[in-house]
Amino acid sequence: MSRAVRLEGLAVDYGRTSRRAAVPVLDRTDLEFPAGSFTALLGPSGCGKSTLLGAVAGFVRPAAGRVAVGGTQVCGPGPDRGMVFQQYALFPWRTARGNVEFALKRFGLPRTERRRRALAALAEVGLADGVERYPAQLSGGMQQRVALARALAAEPDVLLLDEPFGALDALTRTRMQELLRRLWQRTGTTVLFVTHDIDEALALAERVVVLGGTPGRVLGDHAVPEGPADPALRARIAGHLGTG
């Protein structure tokens, strides 16, 4: 199952106190991500793309506007949204299976169901043979697969990924991109993927939303056609970022 995500006049600021004015991070933003879509949020560091993702996840409170998932306003984290970060954040004393199972405890599932989901999710990301390995026994790419499995095991309607492959080597990164694309095509989950890499955005997503400026705002919104890479589209996106 998947759900649409809608941002209505969403603005975010940080640092507001009784003695200090807030610093605007994300300007008022209106965007809609249809159910089952795969969108890349592209932009340089500091443009508000991770903040936008955090607001959808329910980790960041808006200063104005609202976020809605499936028509319901987001008021905090929820099981309908799964999050994958660049840092794996795995418990070193738990196996791959144990890490995924632990994340499922908050749903109050029986132990047998937690194990079933954990094993199924780890198999989905190609780690069926590594379920009893500890993080120290796994490569960086394999640890990120565990992090992805941890999110998938919750069977979210929306999958949020914040530069999840940024710390991986080029070959592993390409393999993880291919894996994510296959998983999205199979599950139809709504995906929002934060990146600062134009080529990664074009390789993965069917739509690229470009953010920039301070506070962050939408600079461009482009559909990505199927088939070979479009140099003209890449040039337009690079132009938004001032890298063309």
Strand content: 25-35%
Cα distance spanning the termini? 39 Å
Number of helices: 7
Q: On the 0-100 scale, what is the average pLDDT? A: 92
CATH architecture of the largest domain: 3-Layer(aba) Sandwich
The coarse silhouette is globular
Label the structural class.
alpha/beta
CA radius of gyration: 18 Å
Domain ABC transporter: 5-238
Keywords: ATP-binding, Nucleotide-binding, Transport
Protein name: ATP-binding cassette domain-containing protein
InterPro entries: AAA+_ATPase, ABC_transporter-like_ATP-bd, ABC_transporter-like_CS, ABC_transporter_ATP-bind, P-loop_NTPase
Task: Describe this structure in a few short sentences.
The protein contains seven helices and ten strands.
Provide a descriptive summary of the structure in words.
GO terms for molecular function: ATP binding. The protein has 244 residues and is α/β, with parallel strands linked by helices. The protein folds into two domains: 1-80 and 159-244, P-loop containing nucleotide triphosphate hydrolases (Rossmann fold), CATH 3.40.50; 87-155, no CATH class. Helix content is 34%, strand content 25%. The strands form two sheets. The chain has a six-stranded mixed beta sheet, sandwiched between helices. Strands 2-1-4-5 form a four-stranded antiparallel beta sheet, covered by helices on one side. Strand 7, helix 5 (170-187) and strand 8 form a beta-alpha-beta unit. Helix 2 (96-104) packs across helix 3 (111-124), helix 2 (96-104) runs parallel beside helix 4 and helix 3 packs across helix 4. The mean pLDDT is 92.
